[in-house]
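During the second half of the funding period, the structural biology subgroup turned its attention to how the target accommodates small molecules. The most pressing case was P1T, which had performed well in the primary screen but for which no bound structure existed. We therefore specified the complex as follows and requested a full 3D prediction, including the ligand pose.
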Amino acid sequence: MTNSKNLKKGTQAIHVGNHPDKTTGAVIPPIYQTSTFVQSSPGEHQGYEYSRSHNPTRSRLEECLASLENADYALVTSSGMSAISLIFQALPKGSKVLCGDDVYGGTYRILNTIYNDRFELKQVNSTDLEAVHDVLNSYKPDLIWLESPTNPMLQISDIHAIVEASRKIGAKVVLDNTFMSPYFQNPLDLGVDMVVHSLTKYINGHSDVVGGAIMLNDKELYDKLWYLQNSIGPSQSPFDSWLVLRGIKTLAIRMEAHAKNAMIIAEFLENHPKIEKVIYPGLSSHPQHELAKSQMSGFGGMLSLYIKGGLEETKRFLEEVNLFVLAESLGGVESLIEHPAIMTHASVPSEERAILGITDNFVRVSVGIEDVNDLKKDLNDALKTI
Ligand code: P1T
């Protein structure tokens, strides 16, 4: 599709990569459920050889995702973690990595237990620009890894300021944009070198696919990442790519609905007597609320909270909710709720969890797009039991 960059996100999500099939006219593109492709003579084919390398269904999804993140290239992988891993595989041995101190537990785990003998690693509170400047100048990292908002504390970092500072020392910046989706935040526009997504979350949106993606503008880096993906093999299946293409069509209306519901739930919980504190970037009580307004076009569907009480009360609350499904993951149309200390961030050592505030009474909520009054009632009923 020509000039897709002039289209709004809601239109891109429906049309880019979704053009009718040339051979049959099918409006919905077929699933090219094939592992291999015929060659008329050795080395002569129509652009596709083998589905680990390329597949037409996956190519369509990559086209759509590149367009949504205002990127020249996108690479779709079998999971968010395999996308993250490919970027670390592309880093030369002995590189120095600087990572935000609050990231998804799986990202923490891969840096600390899989690549720990390959890189030097330091972590920093990336909301503290002075601390970031200090560590950039003293440590001089090759790569900076950020989440904004972070998982699960929903902290916001000044992406543009960090990019400017890292340019001075020649460091590349990667931003995991999973929590915002390309609908609410486009980090490449703020100067970031690579964006990572877990497609499993908002982009697919229906909790029925695991997938990941990397979006970027640098052709050389893209070629290197593709080479690694083709060699190591974490390519997404055609069926899963097709499901994501199906889910992504409603990204715009889903994200608007998530954010609307999350704001209502955040305000409701902030005034609830059984709740100690709510963290949601859309609340004026959020420490980086103004920054969030300036670099995001919406506040998303994720919020975190502290129950008044300890582990016992928190567990009871989590057992008593009905519409909020107690499960890992986020970004599906259904509301999910979880206990980071026991579930998603169990691989972060307890001392580090304590510093971050991931305590026994800390709960993370992925607000779905159900009727918000039903969601409020469900939370209220569960809170009454503690
Ligand atoms: O689960 P997977 O598709 O491999 O994505 C990993 C990942 C990467 N980045 C962020 C910010 C994430 O939140 C995740 C996965 N997170 C969860 C499963 C969770 O419940 O937080």
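Two results from this model are relevant to the next phase. The chain has 14 helices and twelve strands. The chain has a mean pLDDT of 97.
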